[in-house]
Design goal:
The complex is a heterodimer of chains A (415) and B (259). Chain A contains 15 helices and eleven strands. Chain A is α/β, with parallel strands linked by helices. In chain A, helix 13 packs across helix 14. The longest helix of chain A is centred in the N-terminal third of the chain and has 20 residues, at 36-55. Chain B has 259 residues and is an alpha/beta fold. Chain B has a single domain (2-258), classed as Alpha/Beta hydrolase fold, catalytic domain (Rossmann fold), CATH 3.40.50. Chain B is built from nine helices and nine strands. A seven-stranded mixed β-sheet of chain B has the order 3-5-4-6-7-8-9, sandwiched between helices. The chains are: A alpha/beta (415), B alpha/beta (259). Chains A and B meet through helix 5 and helix 10 of A and helix 5 of B. Chain B: Keywords: Hydrolase.
């Protein structure tokens, strides 16, 4: 299986309670909560941690896009990706992803991802995302009624821009371009494309029809994911495609330490910070039209993974560290314990692309670096051979070769 | 249901509520929903033939996917009026329906008799930012009603419950509001200001004095921009003056239509 290093670039110095009437960490939070110098230090820390992950054998380094929020201060993932593409050697640059409807015109995405693919010798994974309601509808003012349509038009434009043999005219509903002739082109031609979703049938069919990797990017663990992931594999089978674990990605918060006791000591505060500082009032989270009626009806019908009450307890900071672990929100403990639990997770969900969240909340850099070290040397090498019977078409060939050549191997104890 | 084919645009099934007899009146409903056979519409129908279509994308009316911009919607209503077989029609537009009615009156003045805009969206004033209709529920409620304690329950609606579909009304409302975002999100301004001077109809702007979604300053701006236009501010009413002050609303509108 593959491991992709990831962290939400969360601001690390928020008060316990957000001061405004609607305690929101997005859209309209008071900007005086945020010190730009600290933000700069923070960016440098994430870059260092990802550079370390590259040397420790991670298959990918994941960056994402969010706007007007302290939860993830990465308005352009392409900028962070650029810092990595030029300073790392092996891992894929997993841009997961650009919110296509927010780029005007969207061939900007084609250009920047191509630049990154050139700079990284062909290590880019192109993630196309709708973007959260807060990002798209509120921060960027896109009408929810038009969001999906704009996304698909942009997707079409970008893919054609990467692959067309000659300049072409694009007369879209939202984009009118007389001469599309993107320069540079990606080294890979059309890079592997990943699209995350939250369980809607439309997105499942899209990824299958276009041979994209599907990401279920929840922070609520195995139990929560089970119904949706099972639904996805049922759909794959129904449509007659191969049940290839590499066509699916999943996120997991990970806290490795030398002992379980140390794990609690080192990570409990940061995990609590992560779950309690990502507040969004209902009207920001669910603007009308963001989800289709069909998806809303499907959501009502589908069996619940983790109930809203438990998520609320997490948001209120009422879950203990080991409760969060038991629920699967985090996978914590010794390398041995983390290894076993991830093997169960990967096997049960049949997921080949694991996005490992190695830094969370206000975790100090040295703890995250140790998390990297323990995971990279004592966890990942034991799980790397899972699913090797399947071909991974969703990770760039160059990064697969380089990581395979350079990643730490299982250390056989002496004697 | 009435089917409307518009060349090069598409086919629309229109749920057209019709009642009464007398001079024809077209009523275009607001952003939340068609009010169904609400008392104020029944009273209008006492002296008019009232045509109250459900906008494409609302309730049972289809074809919203064919609507690319506000001009398509104005074209749709022009063709709908033609299909009624009337030369001219008085138009009452409420909320987003007022926005569309004003567009129609500016773009197809030849089919409009008189124009009544009730708490109409369509303009934006930088120095008077109005409450976001998609903001926090308690703030929207306070902006929408003069007296939030006296909201009719249920609010007038065209929705008909289906015992087979217990969540039907939730999805009815979700779909309506999703459609509304097309022309209201993030600011309900699609350039109407530039076209209002071309309205030729004698016009009346009605505004609930307590409307926080379309404050009276916005109503005054409509009056300033439309050549022959008068203002009627209704006290103790918010975004729905025909519900909160039904008698005064009917008296004001009938007086204007019959003058």
């Amino acid at each position: 299986m593959k491991f992709h290093w990831f962290a939400e670039a969360t601001y690390n110095d928020l008060p316990e309670r957000l001061p405004q009437k609607n305690p929101s960490s997005a859209v309209d939070l008071p900007m005086d909560l945020v010190d730009s110098r600290k933000v700069g230090e923070h960016y440098k820390m994430f870059i260092r941690l990802m550079q370390q992950a590259d040397t420790l054998g991670w298959d990918g380094l994941a960056v994402n896009e969010h706007h007007q929020t302290t939860f993830a201060m990465t308005p352009s993932p392409n900028l962070l990706a650029a810092s990595l593409a030029g300073t790392t050697e092996n891992a894929a640059i997993l841009i997961i992803g650009d919110s296509l409807a927010l780029y005007n015109p969207p061939n900007r995405v084609a250009e920047e991802m191509a630049y990154l693919d050139c700079l990284s010798d062909g290590r880019v994974i192109a993630g196309f995302v709708f973007g959260t309601p807060m990002d798209t509808a509120f921060a960027y003012g896109i009408s929810p009624a038009e969001l999906r349509d704009r996304f698909h038009e942009a997707r079409d434009l970008i893919t054609r821009a990467w692959t067309a043999d000659e300049p072409f005219a694009f007369n879209g509903k939202y984009n009118k371009l007389r001469y599309v002739n993107v320069l540079p082109r990606p080294v890979q031609g059309r890079p592997p494309i990943w699209v995350p979703g939250s369980g809607s049938l439309e997105t499942w069919d899209l990824v299958l029809d276009e041979d994209y990797c599907y990401g279920y990017l929840s922070f609520f663990g195995l139990d929560n994911a089970r119904p949706i992931v099972q639904g996805f594999w049922d759909r794959v089978q129904e449509r007659g495609f191969e049940i290839n674990p590499f066509r699916m990605a999943f996120t997991q918060l990970i806290c490795v330490a030398d002992s379980d006791k140390e794990a609690e000591r080192d990570y409990a505060e940061a995990v609590n910070y992560f779950f309690t500082r990502q507040k969004a009032p209902l009207h920001y989270a669910t603007p009308p039209g963001y989800m289709t009626i069909a998806s809303q009806r499907e959501g009502l019908r589908r069996q619940r993974g983790i109930g809203a009450d438990v998520r609320q307890r997490a948001a209120n900071g009422e879950l203990s560290f080991w409760e969060a672990d038991e629920l699967g929100f985090i996978v914590a403990g010794t390398p041995e314990r983390v290894r076993q639990r991830l093997e169960t997770l990967a096997t049960e969900l049949h997921v080949g692309q694991l996005i490992t969240c190695m830094h969370m909340g206000n975790l100090p850099e040295e703890t995250a670096a140790k998390n990297n070290e323990l995971f990279g040397r004592q966890v990942a090498p034991h799980l790397r051979d899972l699913f090797t019977d399947f071909e991974d078409r969703w990770t760039p060939a160059v990064s697969q070769q380089r990581v395979a050549a350079g990643a730490p191997k299982i250390t056989v104890p002496a004697n | 249901m009435r089917t409307l084919d518009i060349a090069n645009v598409g086919t629309f099934d229109v749920n057209l509520w019709t009642a009464g007899s007398g001079s024809p009146v077209l009523f275009l409903h607001g952003y939340e929903r068609h009010p169904g056979g609400a008392p104020f519409l029944q009273r209008l129908a006492a002296s008019h033939t009232v045509y109250a279509p459900e906008q494409p994308g609302y309730g049972n009316s289809t074809g919203f996917e064919h609507v690319q911009d506000i001009f398509d919607l104005a074209l749709f209503y022009r063709e709908l009026v033609r299909s009624l077989g009337v030369e001219r029609i008085d138009v009452i537009g409420h909320s987003t329906g007022g926005m569309v009615a004003a567009e129609l009156a500016a773009l197809s003045p030849e089919i409009i008799g008189k124009l009544v805009l009730v708490d109409a969206f369509g303009l934006w004033l930088d120095d008077q930012p109005a409450q976001d209709p998609f903001g926090a529920a308690d703030e929207v409620k306070a902006a929408k009603w003069h007296d939030p304690a006296a909201i009719p329950n249920p609010e007038p609606t065209i929705f008909v419950p289906d015992p087979e579909d217990p969540h039907g009304e939730i999805f009815f409302q979700a779909q309506n509001l999703a459609t509304a975002t097309k022309f209201m999100w993030p600011i309900a301004d699609r350039g109407l200001r530039r076209r209002l001077p071309y309205v030729r109809a004698r016009s009346l702007v009605v505004n609930g004095a307590s409307d926080g979604l379309v404050p009276t300053a916005y109503a005054k701006e409509f009056v300033r921009l439309i050549p022959q236009c008068e203002l009627a501010v209704i006290a103790d009413a918010g975004h729905y003056p025909f519900i909160e002050q039904e008698d005064e609303f009917i008296a004001t509108v009938e007086k204007f239509l019959s003058a």
